[in-house]
Amino acid sequence: MHTRKNQRNLTRSEKKRLVAAILELKRSGRYDEFVRMHVEYYVSDAEDDPRPAHMTPSFFPWHRKFLLEFERALQAVDSGVSVPYWDWTKDNTPASSLWAEDFLGGNGRARDRQVMTGPFAYAQGNWRINVRVTSGAFLTRNFGRPSDPISLPTKANVAKALRAPLYDAAPWDSTSSSGFRNEIEGWVAGSVDRPRNHNRVHGWVGGAMLGATSPNDPVFWLHHAYIDLLWVRWQSAHPRAGYLPRKKLPETDRQYGRVFSLDEPMPPWNVAPSALLDHKSLYRYG
C-alpha cells in the first residue's frame, strides 16, 4: 500500500527520486509506450470505434488503470516512488511549486513554447518527444494561453461537479448535460472555448498537454492523480450512486458497442469498470 501525496508536500528527496524514475522510464522506451497507448485510445465520440478512455462513462476507471500501470512501472525502477497529485484549484499560478527547476520545470519560452528549465527540458538531453503530431522534438507549454487567456478551474467549479447526484447520463458522450463524469471531464456542447475542469487544465498548461499525446508532459500524471482523487471524493459524497450505465446498452442505442457498462471489459487490459471502483486496497491519498 502506497500513498499519493499532494505534490506541494513532497520532500526534496521525493521529488528527486520521482524525476529519476520518470527519466529512467523514458531512457528505456517504456515511457513512450504509455504515450502511444493514450494516443491509441483517444477515440472521440464522432468516431464509430469503441471509446473506453474519453467522452465516455469509463473515463474515470480507464484512467485509474492507466495511472496504476504507469505507477507500477515507476515502482519497478524505484519501489519507494508514487505519483503525487496536483490540486490545481490551489496551486494555480506559474509560480506554484510543481513548476520549480528541481521538479517539472516551468513555462515554455515565448517564441516556440519550448520548456527551457528543469529535468524535462530538451536542452538537458534527457527528454526528446518521440510520439508526436508536430515536428518539434522538445517539450512545450503555454501557461494560461496568453493569446486567448484561460484560467485554471476553481474550488467552486469542482464543488459544483461534486454535487452532481448521478455518475453519468445518456447519451453517454461529450454532450451529456448532467452527471459527475462530464462535469469533471469537461466537455461543453457546441464549444471548444469553454472547457471545464479536466479539459480546462489541459488547455491552461497548453503545448504538449493538448490532445492525444498529452502524457508527453509529465504533469499529465499529477493532473490525473487529482482527477482520480475527485472521483474518490464524489464516491464518498454519494455512496448510493454507482457507476452508470450498469447494464450493456441495447443494440438499438447509438452507443451500443462504443461505451462500456459496469461489467464490460475495457481494452487494452480486459478489465471492467466494476473491478476499478474501489482504490482502497491499492493506494491511499495523503
Multimeric state: single chain
Structural class: mainly alpha
Q: What is the mean predicted local confidence, pLDDT?
A: 95
* CATH architecture verdict: Orthogonal Bundle
Overall tally of structural domains = 1
Q: Quick one: how many beta strands?
A: 2
* Strand arrangement across the biggest beta sheet: 1-2
Strand content: under 5%
The largest β sheet comes out as: 2 strands, parallel
Helix content bin = 25-40%
Radius of gyration: 18 Å
Q: Outline, from the CA principal axes?
A: globular
Poorly predicted spans: none
CATH class division: Mainly Alpha
CATH H-level superfamily: Di-copper center containing domain from catechol oxidase
CATH topology: di-copper center containing domain from catechol oxidase
Instruction: Please report the distance between the alpha carbons of the first and last residues.
Output: 12 Å
Number of contiguous helices:
7
Order of helices and strands: EHHHHHHHE
Notes on the protein architecture:
With 286 residues, the chain is mostly helical. It has a single domain (2-285), classed as Di-copper center containing domain from catechol oxidase (di-copper center containing domain from catechol oxidase), CATH 1.10.1280. Helices cover 31% and strands 2% of the residues. A two-stranded parallel ribbon has the order 1-2. It is globular. The mean pLDDT is 95.
Briefly, what is this?
With 286 residues, the protein is mainly alpha-helical. It is built from seven helices and two strands.
SSE layout and pairing:
Blueprint: E1 2-4, H1 12-28, H2 30-40, H3 59-77, H4 155-162, H5 180-185, H6 197-205, H7 219-237, E2 283-285
Helix pairs in contact: 1-3, 3-7
